[in-house]
Each structure stands twice: as structure tokens, then as C-alpha cells.
Amino acid sequence: MLGLIVTILLVGLIAGALARLLVPGRQDMSIPMTIVLGIVGSLLGGFLGYLLFGKDSEDGFLQPAGLVGSVIGAVLVLLLWTRFGQRSTARR
User: Whole-angstrom Cα distance, residue 48 to residue 89?
Assistant: First the structure.
């Protein structure tokens, strides 16, 4: 159980960091938020992969295609976050 949690955190950190490198512009995120970005992106990437290809985690959780899907999902989440999530100015 502890190994699964560490793996999820590590994959989240890698996917979130790669997504932040791939998306242009500045993202004001801490390391824990980068991990959360990667975990949410991994869930989104896995869901999209299941919808497109009909595959799930039967062959194991840590696969190269799963890591690529995690990065793609994290990039999508980060693009949505930068577009809709950081509206700090009030509308008039």
C-alpha cells in the first residue's frame, strides 16, 4: 500500500513537472500543487485512454503509455487551469 502511494506521488511529480515545462508561460505553483496537477492529469489521461482505446490497468499501473497519458492529461489540466482558474481580477 505504501509503495502504491509513493508511486502515485512520484508519477504525479514527474507528470506535473513535464506538463509545466511543456506549457509556455509562467505558472505560480508550488511543488505540492505540481504533484496534484500530475495526479489529476494522470486520472484524466487514463480516462481518455480508456475512452479512446478501451484499455485499462489490466497490464499493470506503471507503463510507458500510462506515463505519456499522464503527461498529456496534466498538460490539458494545466491549460484549462491557466485559461479559467486564475482569474484574480474582478469583473465590472
Answer: 33
Using an 8 Å Cβ cutoff, are 28 and 54 in contact?
no
What's the sign of the alpha-carbon dihedral 12, 14, 20, 22? negative
Closest CA to 14 of 71, 82, 90, 69: 71
In a domain, 69, yes or no: yes
Residue labelled with grid coordinates 506503471: 62
* Domain-located, residue 74: yes
pTM equals 0.77
pLDDT digit string, tens, across residues 46-68: 788 777 776 665 655 556 567 88
Do the beta carbons of residue 75 and residue 19 sit within 8 Å?
yes
Quote the CA–CA distance of 57 and 62 in Å, as a whole number. Answer: 9
User: What range defines the domain where residue 74 resides?
Assistant: 37-54+64-82
